Amino acid sequence: MELKGLSVAVTGGASGLGLATARRVLATGGNVTLIDLPGSNGEEIAKELGDGAVFAPGDVTDSEQFAAALDVAHERGGLRGVVHCAGAGRKMRVLDKEGKAGSLEDFEFVIRLNLIGSFNALRLGAERMAELDLIEDERGAVVMTASVAAFEGQIGQINYSASKAGIVGMTIVAARDLASKGIRVNTIAPGIMDTPLLARLRDDVRKSLEATVPNPSRLGRPDEFGRLATDILENGYLNGETIRLDGAIRMAPR
């Protein structure tokens, strides 16, 4: 499914991995709808990207608001691709330093944002794709974002790792479930990526992180994520897969 002339929605599209993916969609000739929080700078970013980009405010945990944002993409010739990058972490442990139970609120917050938000992207995106005619035996594709923490979560990531492992678990099930509709589902599990959050770190901390990556020994580039995401959208035989994008890193306990 070549993306040229097709409509793709990218959540978290105003920054980081989402913005890099949006740039790649535009480079393929596709149209991109940036979906990000209402308070983001998505409108400004869309204008900078040019005519092929628009901004639609939407919180992925708010089903009605998010559905309305996806409708913006769907009205641009039919929604053919969703790349779901929106998500976050909140550090917590099973027991705190005093031995008291970790915060259920912090656990629920991350599960709701990362896992339920991903299911919203999956179900609401697929609902719109299912209305469309087939192109090369498919109607569309969804790319979700997990993390290497789904496999080797570190201490303090109990909520984040659980949410990302849930995304990995959904991938093959969703791909099988949506096969009859001609909709593919895949997931990218990035390692340590050079996002705006990591850009705030001191140089020595960044170098320490880079040293943990076997090859290439550096942080991942957002464009590498965006390139993989668009390749997945265009490769019609790639389905039900979680792909690690991590330079062969395996995270240590801390």
From TrEMBL:
<protein>
    <submittedName>
        <fullName>3-hydroxyacyl-CoA dehydrogenase</fullName>
        <ecNumber>1.1.1.100</ecNumber>
    </submittedName>
</protein>
<dbReference type="GO" id="GO:0004316">
    <property type="term" value="F:3-oxoacyl-[acyl-carrier-protein] reductase (NADPH) activity"/>
</dbReference>
<dbReference type="Pfam" id="PF00106">
    <property type="entry name" value="adh_short"/>
</dbReference>
<dbReference type="InterPro" id="IPR057326">
    <property type="entry name" value="KR_dom"/>
</dbReference>
<dbReference type="InterPro" id="IPR036291">
    <property type="entry name" value="NAD(P)-bd_dom_sf"/>
</dbReference>
<keyword id="KW-0560">Oxidoreductase</keyword>
<comment type="similarity">
    <text>Belongs to the short-chain dehydrogenases/reductases (SDR) family.</text>
</comment>
<dbReference type="InterPro" id="IPR002347">
    <property type="entry name" value="SDR_fam"/>
</dbReference>
<dbReference type="InterPro" id="IPR020904">
    <property type="entry name" value="Sc_DH/Rdtase_CS"/>
</dbReference>
<feature type="domain" description="Ketoreductase">
    <location>
        <begin position="6"/>
        <end position="195"/>
    </location>
</feature>
